[in-house]
Amino acid sequence: MDLSNITISEVSYDGLVFSHYIDELNHWIKNNDLSWNFNSTLHPGEYSGFFVVFNTTTNGTFVNVISSGNKTSNDTVNVLKSSYTIEKIVTNSVVLIGDYVTFEIVVHNDGETNLENITITELAFDGLLYDSFIDYHEAWIKNDDLSWTTKDVLAPNEYKGFIVKFKTTDVGDFVNVISSQNKTANDAVKVVKPDFTIEKIAVNSTVRFGEQAVFEIIIRNIGIVNLTDVKITELKHDGLIYDHYIDDLGDWSENSLVWTLNGILAPGEFASFYVVFNTTSSGIRYNTISASTNETGIKNTTAQVEVVDNRTANLTVSKISLNRTVVIGNLTIFEIIVTNNGEIDLDNVFVIEDSYGSGLVYVDYYNGTGNWKHMLNSNNKHQFNLIDTLKVGESKRFYVIFNTTELGNFTNTVLVGYDNVTLANSTNVTEVIGIEVNETVKNETVDQIVKRDISNATGNPLVILLLGLFVCVVARRFKN
């Protein structure tokens, strides 16, 4: 039977954007939506059709569905990615004025389809004068202007490139820009004139304390004119003491740590020598120099060397009770001796009264040898700081005085260290006893006993006098 009033509707077309339709026989009329009416009669055995055109918006696989009455039909389209990237890479980023600079131009097909007729155009090249191009693989055709087009197909994941060559005409930083369709790429070149580089290199980045540190100094002329009156000056070398320099070629003259090159430094040339320093302290040591010429300004550079001190630090402390057994209420004195048994002199040596029992009460201290200063530290403990340097093999002593307030045996412990590092400790025990005597006899007897104990222990008349004074002031009565 004949068919008429046929309508075809687009039902689904994800990933596609309708563009237009093509009806070569003019049998179909498009409605306001995406549907078309057949404007004629379709006789048995006849067919009629038209084309719909969509724009693709992204790559992927998409199904396009149409319907007519209760009938549907579909087909699938695979949208491939069509894409490429461009790069412009300078092969020598710093050149001398008047020399040539070259850029490599690279095109990469990062899509899924073959690409043809890719054109690269030079957009901007201020300060540069085009000279020529190099196409090692004969893959490009140069057009009448500064543009190039690929000769052959660029397959997926394939690269094609060529080199463009420019002459430098001005000093400065210049950006060279290329374009291809809506893509751009660029790279920069620095064009320089009279100039130099200065380097100072530690031959050994780490040396042991007492060894010599050696630095190589290198100056290079990277300009286009001769450099005259080339000078290198030592500016700073804390922790290092200059010893001598090494100039195998005899190119340099030295005066008060200033070296002058004997002659000119021609373009492209370099001159060097070595400086040798003695190491006097450990740590990271910096050495700074300056370089200058008649034609340029001054440049500074710094090198560093780590001086490692493998010598060991060691301290011992002795705590000696000058009267190990004490009558309650009387004073007890401890002699504290600190000795540097290590390999290096030590600063910031300290002694801390770490613990001394409830039966002992700190009274005062007395300098023996060395300059000791008393303080209460952050832990509220009595700390004694040596102001002087404690040299290797040297001992310093002082005396600490306590009053006795309880009977029993009391352990007194001290710690010793330097720079907030504790290295050793020493412990001593004091026995506090009670005796029953009459008051008139007791003070005299205790005074005599303590003086005798100190005299026997130290023979130091100053300590005897000090203890005697404390006994007279502080001595307390004791009765059972």
What attributes does this structure have?
Immunoglobulin-like; 37 strands; 4 domains; six-stranded mixed beta sheet; single chain; disordered C terminus; 480 residues; 2 helices; mainly beta; 55% strand; elongated
Shape type: elongated
Number of helical regions: 2
Regions with little confidence, pLDDT below 50 for 5+ residues = 436-480
Looking at CATH, which topology of the largest domain would you report? Immunoglobulin-like
Q: Would you tell me the overall average pLDDT? A: 88
Biggest β-sheet description:
6 strands, mixed
Q: What structural class results from the helix and strand content?
A: mainly beta
**Name of the CATH class of the largest domain:** Mainly Beta
Beta-strand fraction estimate: over 45%
Overall tally of structural domains:
4
Cα distance, first to last residue?
141 Å
Number of beta-strand segments: 37
Strand order of the largest sheet: 9-17-16-11-14-13
CATH architecture of the largest domain: Sandwich
